[in-house]
Amino acid sequence: MSEPILSLEAVETDIAQYHILKGVSLSVPRGQVTMLLGRNGVGKTTTMRTIMGLLRNKAGQIRFDGAEISGELASSRCRAGIGFVPEDMGIFSALTVEENMILAAVSGAPDRARLDWLFTVFPPLKTFWKAPAGTLSGGQKQMLSIARAMIEDRKLYLIDEPTKGLAPAIVSTMVGALRELKRQGASILMVEQNFAVARALGDHCVVMDDGRATWSGAMADLATDHALQERLMGLSMEAG
């Protein structure tokens, strides 16, 4: 087994007076899609923001690509090869789609071949290339948010609920794009409440509860064990 691209060991994070992460330990295998699952409010988004450096862990270790990064700024983690798609999309509404994409290409001007590929998986981006991002529909804004992370070949992609609130047709487009990214061998950690999407994309799975990672294993094992789903999350994936 190769070293995981990302590992957390006993990570604790507070937000104001609230103790959110209470010793999270997990690993993300290199070249696989790891789904981060659990009920609402158990710490999944806080985990993602802590990995990205938008929140600072007060204890524990975060190792990325063999290096300890707990003390690094978010900008340094980005330059080191982590792409982040936040739950709130994080696009610049007053800037055009083109300007949003240029800003996301931290290594320089966007690669033309990479951009052409993104236009094939997210056609509306080409259509609205010169339009202000704020004029896009919700689904189109989510496409832009994901495309910003994908504009360069990242070592790790952190993607927080990419299909939340989207129509089925847009969800299908998202899944197709992420499946293509997976086919290229990308390492992905993804929060997703849509279990059908989790089943379709996930190789590995980590389940969280009350600020801790309580189970990890193959996504296929969790997807086929309804009793385990009920025990870990209080619901069955059959509902997804």
From TrEMBL:
GO molecular function terms listed in the Swiss-Prot or TrEMBL record: ATP binding; ATP hydrolysis activity; branched-chain amino acid transmembrane transporter activity
Official protein name in the record: ABC transporter ATP-binding protein
Record-linked PANTHER family: ABC TRANSPORTER ATP-BINDING PROTEIN (PTHR43820:SF2), HIGH-AFFINITY BRANCHED-CHAIN AMINO ACID TRANSPORT ATP-BINDING PROTEIN LIVF (PTHR43820)
GO biological process annotation, one example: L-amino acid transport
Gene3D superfamilies in the record: P-loop containing nucleotide triphosphate hydrolases
Similarity comment text for this entry: Belongs to the ABC transporter superfamily.
InterPro entries linked: AAA+_ATPase, ABC_transporter-like_ATP-bd, ABC_transporter-like_CS, BCAA_Transport_ATP-bd_LivF, P-loop_NTPase
Keywords: Amino-acid transport, ATP-binding, Nucleotide-binding, Transport
Domain of life: Bacteria
The species this protein was found in: Thalassorhabdomicrobium marinisediminis
Pfam entry (one): ABC_tran
CDD domains xrefs: ABC_TM1139_LivF_branched (cd03224)
Stretches assigned to the ABC transporter domain: 6-235
